[in-house]
Write a structure and sequence with these properties.
Layout (H helix, E strand, L loop, with lengths): L8 H50 L9 H6 L5 H5 L1 E2 L21 E7 L9 E7 L12 E5 L4 E4 L11 E2 L3
Parallel strand pairs: 1-2
Antiparallel strand pairs: 2-3, 3-4, 4-5, 5-6
Length: 171
């Protein structure tokens, strides 16, 4: 009698299950890495906003901080960051860059609150929040806060908005 060679159905099913487990684990790590990259991008965007506000206030703003529209028009922030700001800038910048419709930058939106010109003392607050805050498709694990002090503060829960009393970043 001839011996048949090859794999049995059980052996093939075991291999398929093992491959499925490995794919699932790698997908979870890729998603976690993307969230970490989105948070790093949001931190850098907050630093750009801080530098833009300081430059605007010291120069063109004459002591006043700028709304996203002002910062975009004067090209202190680029199109991608401008589109992620709330309120979203409209129109074009001085250099002719066209504003985009509202769209998250690396999964984050940035809510501005700037005092009206002439307020004493002049302040601003920016809160960076993930566009999607719950479930597997969430775009970030943390929310960020920035004010005129330049200190970025963080909330480890993206659904809990950070404020001036929140933990400073890297502490």
């Amino acid at each position: 009698m001839k011996r048949q060679s090859g794999f049995s159905l059980i052996e093939l099913l075991i291999v398929i299950v093992i491959i499925g487990i490995l794919v699932t684990l790698s997908t979870l790590y890729v998603i976690a890495s993307r969230r970490a990259a989105n948070s790093a991008s949001a931190i850098e965007s907050m630093r750009v906003i801080s530098a833009a506000q300081a430059s605007y206030e010291a120069g063109i703003g004459n002591g006043n901080y700028g709304q996203p529209q002002n910062l975009f028009y004067e090209e202190y922030i680029d199109v991608a960051l401008g589109a992620a700001c709330i309120p979203t800038p409209m129109g074009t910048s001085r250099g002719g860059l066209n504003a985009l419709p509202p769209f998250p930058k690396s999964g984050y939106l940035f809510n501005f609150n700037v005092d009206p010109p002439g307020s004493i003392p002049m302040t601003y607050q920016v809160v960076g929040v993930p566009h999607v805050t719950t479930g597997l498709p969430r775009t970030g694990d943390r929310a960020f806060y920035l004010d005129q002090s330049g200190v970025i503060r963080v909330s480890s829960d993206p659904t809990q908005l950070p404020d001036v009393n929140s933990q400073p970043l890297n502490n």
